[in-house]
Design goal:
The chain is α+β, with helices and mostly antiparallel strands and 447 residues long. It has a domain of 162 residues. It is built from 10 helices and 9 strands. The strands form 2 sheets. Strands 6-5-4-3-2-1-9 form a 7-stranded antiparallel sheet, with helices on both faces. A two-stranded antiparallel ribbon has the order 7-8. A hairpin with a 3-residue loop joins strand 4 and strand 5. Helix 5 runs antiparallel to helix 6 and helix 6 packs across helix 9.
Length: 447
């Protein structure tokens, strides 16, 4: 380590200037408020790497082609090209997206998804909207023109999507928003009546306002299928008619969509996925920024570039903890009655999972007392997780190992039963190929 502090005047000014930026970014403002347009992210200028860019290459080479249909444009063809199941369809009728003029309770917006990408479709819409988990940029947004052209390709979007998707609601990072609102007969959100941000911790009673929901939830109430008659929600609001709905034909023309469903199980999985992908995206971006700022400071101070400060370690620990807590279902709601969907989504979703020798997968659904049978997110095996910087993955793996072995010391660590911990450990050891070596030993990390 350098101990000579006789910097030149120019060098001292450079250090002071960098330390000023360093303190401004790390102390005065939250880490998530950092400008993603600066190094090392350069969000708008950087070249994305995701399933959409891979599709673009296949389209350019002629290995793939999007086929146009009069009723749905490129929708079916795009879903096939991205390996997105039609059974993932969920329907939202609140005017809360880019093409709000196309959305109403009579013409809801459809959303389709798999682990890596989400596709939004509006009837007679100008474009389809796409969001993809990206190897370096967290989340990247695209549109695909719904015009019958010989070679239609997705176009990347930045400012128009980031206005909402990189707002304070996502801590300044590009990500997804799932909201529940009270909605009038035209689909306008009644913002004065309040709204809810939805994730695993949201009570069912606060979910799905402005969404259609098909499926049963027993005595568990929710806000799905609810349309308010006036400009404010009634004080004695009762959504009995919106719960346990299995058919939407009396609400709009379902035949105009790929399926007649807005499956309750698909909605719950989508909400979990949005929350998990947001935390993974933030972990990746924050870690890359922390390491970059640390290297620049080390360079200015004349220290070895790989010297790790407490600030950098703290920043990585903070975003890593958020991933670990959510991944293991911390604060996830418990169900009091069984949930059952109306489509093939639950079976299609589970069929995509890697299985251990006992036939178990992290994609197995419970739907009786909780969403997933085994309390560890299936997205640990996703592109979003696998592309995290090594430093972030190392932290997450170590904390997961500690908690799953009953050795966690954090006061907020998820409290999992021994049966659940053992099952998740066994499934991960059998299905996750890049686990650190200490996961395969009975002694574990550093022992």
């Amino acid at each position: 380590m350098r101990t000579d502090h006789s910097f030149s005047a120019q060098g001292l000014r450079a250090v002071n200037r960098f330390v000023g930026l360093f303190l401004l970014g790390w102390a005065t403002f939250p880490a998530a408020a950092q400008d993603i347009e600066r190094e090392p992210i350069r969000y708008s200028e950087a070249t994305p790497r995701n399933v959409v860019t891979e599709l673009e290459k296949r389209l350019a080479s002629g290995a793939a082609k999007l086929e146009f249909e009069p009723e749905h444009g490129y929708l079916r063809s795009l879903l096939r090209a991205l390996d997105v199941p039609e059974s993932s369809q969920v329907l939202v009728f609140s005017k809360t997206s880019l093409q709000r003029d196309r959305i109403s309770p009579r013409t809801p917006r459809a959303i389709y998804f798999n682990d890596d990408v989400m596709v939004g479709f509006c009837l007679r819409g100008r474009v389809m909207e796409i969001s993809a988990a990206d190897d370096a940029l967290g989340t990247v947004f695209y549109t695909l023109d719904q015009t019958d052209e010989e070679k239609s390709v997705p176009l990347r979007q930045t400012e128009s999507c980031l206005l909402c998707h990189s707002s304070s609601a996502n801590q300044g990072m590009p990500g997804h928003l799932v909201r529940s609102l009270y909605v009038d007969r035209q689909g306008n959100p009644l913002l004065a009546s309040g709204s809810f941000r939805t994730d695993d911790a949201s009570p069912l009673a606060e979910r799905w306002g402005g969404w259609y929901v098909t499926g049963t939830s027993g005595r568990q109430k929710h806000m799905g299928n609810l349309i308010c008659a006036n400009s404010r929600k009634p004080e004695d609001l009762d959504n009995n008619d919106g719960v346990n709905v299995v058919n939407l034909k009396d609400r709009f023309t379902t035949s105009m969509y790929l399926t007649p469903h807005s499956d309750i199980v698909a909605l719950m999985v989508l909400e979990h996925q949005a929350g998990m992908l947001n935390r993974l995206a933030r972990a990746g971006l924050e870690t890359r920024m922390a390491l970059h700022y640390q290297r620049e400071l080390n360079k200015a101070l004349g220290q070895p570039l790989d010297t790790r400060s407490d600030s950098a370690a703290s920043r990585i620990r903070s975003v890593g903890e958020a991933v670990v807590q959510y991944m293991l279902g911390h604060n996830a709601i418990h169900l009091t009655d069984p949930i059952e969907g109306t489509s093939t989504f639950a079976a299609d979703f589970a069929a995509r999972g890697r299985r251990d020798a006992k036939g178990r997968s992290l994609r197995d659904l419970d739907l009786k007392t909780r969403l997933f049978r085994y309390p560890c997110s299936y997205l640990i095996d996703s592109r979003a997780f696998n592309s995290l910087p090594t430093e972030a993955k190392d932290y997450i793996y170590k904390r997961l190992w500690e908690i799953l072995n009953g050795r966690g010391t954090g006061k907020d660590d998820p409290r999992l039963s021994e049966v659940d911990r053992e099952a998740v450990l066994e499934i991960l050891r059998a299905t996750k190929p890049d686990l650190p070596d200490y996961w395969k030993s009975e002694f574990g990390a550093g022992r």
